[in-house]
Structures are given as structure tokens and as C-alpha cells.
Amino acid sequence: MKFFTTAALTSACLAGGATVALSQPRADVTRMQRAAENPLVFAPNGPMLQAASLDQAEPLADLLWIRAVLVFGERWKTDLDPVWIQWLRGTMLAVTDLDPHWRSPYFYGGSLLRVLGDVDGSDEVFKRGADNVPDDGYFAFSYAMNQYLYHDDTTTAADWLERAAHAPQAARWYSAAAAAMRSNGGDRAGAIAYLENRRKAELSEPERADVDVQLARLYHDRLAETFLPACAAYREAHGAPPPSPADFFAWANAPIPANPRGDDWVVGRDGCIRSAAAEGARVTRLRKGEARFIK
User: Fold this and answer.
1) Sign of CA dihedral 65, 71, 74, 78
2) What pTM does this model have?
3) How buried is residue 231: exposed, middle or buried, by Cβ count under 10 Å (0-12/13-18/19+)?
4) Which residue in 2, 34, 116, 254 has a CA-CA distance of 20 to 30 Å to 125?
5) Is the Cβ–Cβ distance between 174 and 164 less than 8 Å?
6) CA 146, CA 51: separation in Å to the nearest integer?
7) Which residues form the domain of 231?
8) What is the radius of gyration, based on Cα positions, of the chain?
9) Final residue before a domain boundary, out of 113, 133, 153
10) How high is the pLDDT of residue 293?
């Protein structure tokens, strides 16, 4: 009887082991499937997690951040289901609630959401970064680029570029970018006013030099624009553009003005008077535009 009991127990163990071995692959698949869906079960809520963290908000933020990055890596380019993208936005925002002065979630989180096409979520993350890490101009700059590239809102983009330029750790060229954007958007007067006020601030020598270059460019563009009617009249009267700037100003009975950019006046290929540097930049842009059609 004892032998029978031992044999039966041995057989049961072997059968159980075989069952486990056979079922393990299926269990692994099921576990992986459920793990992939787990991020969608709970939508992170920053304020609630903050209250539940028992003064351990930063470690919890670390764990959420790791999970968010892993989910992005698993699903990017393979799953564009808006549900998990919405979950990712909520998780990024929850991380910034739990650890508002941590730079990485703003820097990478805003970019990841933009890559996924959630520009509104990217906007929200970058705006939080600008508010919570105000010394770093990158987040205001990134928000500005979203407005310019994805929302076609040049005015808001220029406003946020100006904000970025005033951050203590801002890149030196943000100021020039803001002015250029205002100018390209038709607000040259606003760009000049901004740079003139910027120049009154305490700037380093490289920053001041950069502002001066941008102001000179804008002053030149404003002046050159006043020549356009007379250039058109010269062409209509003579059937050709003026042979030289001196001939043009002599015909217009006007003294040759100082060039704000500091170089020579030239007659452009379009018959308009502008600085040599401005004409060179204009021709380069035209060539690049033509190259797109040739390709």
C-alpha cells in the first residue's frame, strides 16, 4: 500500500511537471499580452498620486518615468492607438506633478509626444517646463517652435521666443530668432522695438553684438523697402534697371544714404537697390528654392 501511494505521488508529480512545462509558453504569451495592456488600465493622476505617495513623490516619479519610456519603446512605430498615446501624455504630466523641477521629463517628454503626433500634449509639457524650470529657455523655445511649425501661429511663436531669450540660461541666438520671426511675419516694427529694448538690458558683449547685427539687418530692410517705388519708376522710364546705385540716386536726385549693414549698395538681379550682403542672401535663397524643383 505504501509503495502504491509513493508511485501514485511520483506519477502525479511527473504529470504536474509536464503540465507546467507544456503550459509555460502559453502563460508567457498571456503575461506579455497583459503586461503590454497594463499601462492602459490605470490613468495616472498627478495630484492623486502626490497625495498617495506618502512623501515619496520623487521615487514614484522615477518609476513612472521608467515605465513611460519602456512603453514608448515597445509601441513606437508599431502601435498608433490613441489610447496609449493619451496614457503616455497623462503619465508625462503626472511625472511633472510629482517632481516639477526635474528637467528630463520636459526635455524628452515633450519631444516624444510631438513625435507621436500629440502636439497638444507636447505643448502642455513644454509650457510646464517653461513655468517650472524658468532659468532654462529651451522649453519656451520648444513651445514656440510647436506654434510656428504645427499651429502656423507666428505671433505666438515670436512671443514665446522672446520669453525664451530672457531666460538666464537661454541660448544667445534666441533673441535674433524672435526678431527674425516677427520680421518674417510682417511685424518688422515690433522686431525693431523688441531688439532696441533688448539692447538696453545688461547683455554680454557677444549678446550685444548679435543684437546689433540683427538691428542693422532690420534697419537696412526698412530703408531698402522705401527704394522700391523709385526703382520701379526708373525701370519704367528707362526700360532697364539702373546700371549702378550711384546712377539710381543721381536720377532720384537724392544723396546716397549710409547703409545700416555697413557694406556697399548694389543693384540686385531684380533691379532693386539693397546691400551686397542682403543681395547675396537673397540669391542664395532663390537658388535653394530652384534646387528643390530641379530634384
Assistant:
1) negative
2) 0.62
3) buried
4) 34
5) yes
6) 33
7) 225-294
8) 32
9) 133
10) 43
